């Protein structure tokens, strides 16, 4: 008899569901990666034994084959050692309910909210896979890459879990398209700043009103709050908009083919760690940052040709109390086709990290033919402007894989990097004059220098470069080592040629200091806000080859040898 107590969690996936297996594999892999990074490694519970990582979760032996360095790509199913009557110490496949139960024991208690989110993530992946079989991907190669992220964040315990109902109709992974609902806002109640011409292009409104596109899912979520304003004429419902928009990877941001612009809607829904509404101070903050960053990106583009960004020049909402001001707020964002050069195709970095789906064939062919040269060009295009923004300009770019588009030429070479989403962009405190801004707007725009560097290092190296490198290398450990050696050389050139003043945090990384990785499991387990998420140290693949002590923690030392050296 299996001695694991599974508890009252999700049943096994139905064998009749053809998507249950892939969904289970994706959800199990994400949760196990989180455990390895945030709990097992720091506690010293992970060792390399032959081709496997072996670990103990709540005292139970678990093993899995891993490659990809700190990206932790698994080859084959994880297994646990089953003991007890008649079991004879046999290794058997580990399933998601069993892993959740073990984690609860390891972390000293049950957490039904956490378990429910993990189950919901698995069910969402199965639903996405089924829907994709009935859908047609977009012809636009950039949008195809935006809609390719079936499994989601590889280091989140429930990457595809959504709050609310009806999400499948609006999910980018299902190749959804939908018409926004058009509201009219009485002119004296319009709240807006900046350039909002893209919103006016969605259609006219009656005299005395301005048009406001709205996400249909959000209108369902806010139905009770909208009854009064719709009944007394402060708002009018003008019906579906004149054309369909296409959701991008963040779910709530859509592309409007009619104007070539993007619209960032509010959604009162938790996706990964955050409820995805546009806070009132973020509405004003987007316009303020667009104004401040324009000269910064001009200078970055001169220094590093091929650097692009997507400004957020305006927003519009309705001044009907904080809940509706935030809930109906729409931020206008420039579309990538408007900033990329002729002959350049933008591709979401997250699709490049995830595999081949949504990636143009020319890119796949060039990457396979000359992976190290392709990678050197990639690192230079992406990393140089991010580092220079921080060291020279005091700007923190959140360059994780969902916030960066990489522009490729017809031969598949990376020639541009496009940075987006000003919600995560911050200014280093003390290096920018924020006087004159309301305190509630100014405070969220800043990080202190140490917090800003942690965010840069995590997003750029751990979330982005490590994941793309693992995909480029595939199953070949020697290629992965060559990629990181090339990255180290490329970044060393940046320090020599471009760094403005001391670049001490980067030189420490090049010397082998550990990298900070965001603790997504920890923040979800604690039911805490995303802004409270901490970091855990992970092995640094930029370090020179050879075992080394990192951080004085046995678990981290072990993972350095396992994931940093063996690949």
Structure description:
The chain is of the alpha+beta class. It has three domains: 121 residues, TATA-Binding Protein, CATH 3.30.310; 149 residues, no CATH class; 225 residues, Orthogonal Bundle (Transferase(Phosphotransferase), domain 1). It is 39% helix and 20% strand. The chain is built from 18 helices and 25 strands. Strands 7-16-17-12-11-10 form a six-stranded antiparallel β-sheet. Strands 1-2-3-4-5 form a five-stranded antiparallel β-sheet. A four-stranded mixed β-sheet has the order 15-21-20-18. A hairpin with a 7-residue loop joins strand 4 and strand 5. The protein is globular.
Care to give the gist of this entry?
This protein is of the alpha+beta class. 39% of the residues lie in helices and 20% in strands. The two termini are 37 Å apart.
Specify the number of helices.
Answer: 18
Largest sheet: 6 strands, antiparallel
Tell me the total number of β-strands: 25
| Strand numbers in spatial order across the main sheet | 7-16-17-12-11-10
CATH topology of the largest domain: Transferase(Phosphotransferase), domain 1
Uncertain stretches of 5 or more adjacent residues? 1-15, 547-567
> What's the CATH class label of the largest domain?
Mainly Alpha
Architecture of the largest domain in CATH?
A: Orthogonal Bundle
First-residue to last-residue Cα separation: 37 Å
User: So what's the overall shape?
Assistant: globular
Domain count: 3
The fraction of residues assigned to DSSP E strands is 15-25%
Question: How large is the radius of gyration?
Answer: 24 Å
Structural class: alpha+beta
Q: For the residues shown, what is the average pLDDT?
A: 91
Helix content: 25-40%
């Amino acid at each position: 008899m299996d001695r694991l107590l599974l508890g009252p969690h999700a049943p096994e996936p139905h064998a009749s569901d053809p998507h249950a297996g892939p969904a289970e594999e994706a959800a199990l892999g994400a949760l196990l990666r989180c455990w390895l990074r945030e709990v097992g490694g720091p506690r010293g519970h992970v060792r390399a034994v032959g081709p496997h990582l072996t670990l103990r979760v709540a005292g139970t032996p678990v093993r899995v084959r891993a490659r990809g360095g700190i990206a932790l790509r698994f080859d084959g199913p994880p297994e646990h050692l089953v003991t007890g009557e008649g079991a004879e110490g046999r290794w058997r496949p580990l399933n998601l309910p069993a892993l959740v139960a073990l984690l609860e024991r390891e972390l000293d208690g049950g957490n039904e909210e956490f378990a429910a989110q993990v189950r919901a993530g698995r069910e969402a992946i199965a639903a996405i896979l089924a829907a994709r079989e009935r859908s047609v991907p977009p012809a636009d190669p950039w949008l195809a890459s935006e809609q390719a992220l079936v499994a989601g964040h590889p280091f989140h315990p429930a990457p595809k879990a959504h709050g609310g109902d009806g999400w499948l109709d609006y999910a980018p992974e299902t190749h959804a398209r939908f018409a926004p609902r058009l509201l009219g806002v009485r002119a004296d109640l319009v709240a807006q700043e900046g350039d909002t011409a893209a919103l006016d292009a969605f259609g006219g409104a009656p005299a005395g009103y301005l048009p406001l596109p709205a996400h249909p899912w959000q209108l369902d979520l806010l139905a009770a709050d909208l009854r009064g304003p719709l009944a007394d004429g402060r708002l009018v419902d003008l019906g579906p908009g004149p054309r369909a928009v296409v959701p991008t990877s963040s779910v709530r941001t859509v592309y409007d083919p009619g104007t070539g612009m993007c619209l960032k809607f509010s959604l009162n829904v938790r996706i990964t760690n955050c409820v995805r509404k546009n806070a009132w101070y973020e509405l004003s903050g987007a316009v303020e940052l667009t104004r401040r960053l324009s000269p910064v990106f001009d200078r970055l583009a001169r220094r590093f040709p091929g650097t692009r960004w997507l400004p957020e020049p305006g927003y519009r909402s309705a001044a009907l109390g904080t809940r509706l001001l935030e809930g109906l707020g729409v931020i206008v964002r420039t579309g990538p086709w408007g900033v990329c050069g002729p002959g350049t195709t933008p591709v979401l970095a997250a699709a490049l990290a995830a595999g081949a789906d949504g990636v143009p064939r020319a890119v796949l062919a060039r990457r396979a033919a000359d992976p190290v040269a392709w990678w050197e060009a990639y690192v230079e295009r992406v990393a140089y402007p991010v580092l220079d923004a921080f060291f020279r300009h005091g700007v923190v770019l959140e360059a994780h894989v969902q916030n960066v588009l990489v522009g490729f030429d017809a031969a598949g070479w990376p020639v541009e990097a496009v940075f987006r989403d000003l919600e995560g962009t911050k200014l280093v405190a003390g290096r920018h004059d924020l006087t004159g801004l309301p305190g509630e707007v100014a405070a969220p725009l800043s990080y202190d220098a140490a917090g800003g560097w942690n965010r840069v290092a995590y997003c750029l190296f751990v979330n982005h470069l490590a994941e793309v490198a693992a995909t480029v290398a595939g199953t070949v450990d020697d290629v992965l080592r060559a990629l990181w050696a090339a990255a180290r050389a490329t970044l060393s050139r940046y320090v020599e040629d471009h760094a403005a003043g001391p670049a001490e945090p980067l030189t420490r990384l090049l010397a082998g200091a550990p990298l900070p990785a965001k603790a997504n499991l920890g923040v979800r387990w604690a039911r805490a806000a995303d802004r409270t998420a901490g970091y855990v140290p992970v092995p640094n693949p930029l370090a020179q080859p050879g075992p080394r002590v990192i951080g004085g923690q046995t678990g981290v030392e072990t993972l350095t040898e396992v994931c940093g050296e063996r690949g």
